[in-house]
Amino acid sequence: RAQGGRRRPRRRMKHLAVYMLLKLGGKEAPTQEDVTTALDAVGIEADAEDLERMFAQLEGKDFDEVIAAGRSKLASFGGGGGGGGGGGGAAAGEAAGEAAEEKKEEEEEEEEEIDMGGGMDMFGDGGGGDDY
Hints:
Helix content: 55-70%
Strand content: under 5%
Shape: elongated
Distance between the termini: 93 Å
Structural class: mainly alpha
Largest sheet: none
Order of helices and strands: HHHHH
Radius of gyration: 35 Å
């Protein structure tokens, strides 16, 4: 139990998650035994007390309505957390600028090394090039 006598939600979530998976898998009305069997199949022990409490809370309720109600509650939390992430742009921009600068310098060096002038014998005719 967590402080204040409240149960840790994480412990109950495994039961609810398995219940939902069984529903998605085509089981119209999963039972406590179905949930326990599914948890056992993956080596997780079901907590009988938590499982009974969950089924008592779901009793007589349409599961799709429970999910819809939960979604509307989640909507009240707002979007939050989507902001962040834009901080590192300056460093990346700086690095990109440096990379572009280096590339430019390399191109200039290559241009200096390439001699397109008259002493080149490209076609083996002694440099005359009178054919064109």
